[in-house]
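Quick one: ADP-L-glycero-D-manno-heptose-6-epimerase from Dyadobacter luticola, structure tokens please.
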Amino acid sequence: MIIVTGAAGFIGSGLISRLNADGFKNIIAVDDFSKIEKAENLEGKTIKEKVERSELFDWIDANSRDIEFIFHIGARTDTTEFDKEIFDELNVNYSKSIWQKCVAYQVPLVYASSAATYGLGENGYDDDETTLSQLKPLNPYGDSKNEFDIWALEQEEKPFFWVGLKFFNVYGPNEYHKGRMASVIFHAYNQIKATEKMKLFRSHNPEYKDGEQMRDFIYVKDLIDVCIFFMHHRKNSGIYNLGTGEARTFKDLVISTFNAMDKTPDISYIDTPADIRDKYQYFTEANMSKIRSIGYDKPFTSLEAGVKDYVQNYLASHSYL
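--- reply ---
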């Protein structure tokens, strides 16, 4: 059996789809299933059992012999939430409990960290485990992810195989429920569909022109490929970046969205809200040399190809991965 936490969410549900396609049917889906807005993400997927998030640890104790792997994808990911206690409970302490179960029963683990740990990128975007304590996340979400990464590395007792993946800007199908936290492509598609136009944040940094703020955008299917790679690889434990290694501009992204919709680009710019302006990232780019060095050699989908697939095969028909 393979456990997937955050199973009804954006990445977790896509991962289950891929596991099913690869022949894995004994999936234990863990989530807060009271959130009905995510229910459609699991429709049509083969799942052995749904386990409420709060009941997972008792379930693991009762079924430990049959657990082959844990993907801990679930987390509170809202970067606008500033109640530290929520992140302590769901991102830090819950993750510690999963880690401890993996140690106790020798279950391999892949968990989701985040590029939010890098803050404004003052120290670059290298997944060097010796520099984690120097990172300066911009919000409690990023703090919680970095806190757990540091804690994991400090543990004397570790699962025999474990990996933390620092997700960069992920986009793709199954994020319909995410509201304002959905990807810029999702919002661009809906804005263009409604108005034939798209508004982007103006640059308030003289080093960047309007629309040329840059992010490392990774298609969710590529991210899932890496998760599957580690499930089979089971060596070289540690913390890894997971982006494409190539930063692209928001303007590139929006033009790709217009093109995928077969519409003429019409982009205007609005001021970045004052309350987030001083914490706005102008550049993120994952250094992907570490994961390449252990044998992951699959190319990442280009922004243009990823946006086209997402828009034409999912958003246009409100389809799911």
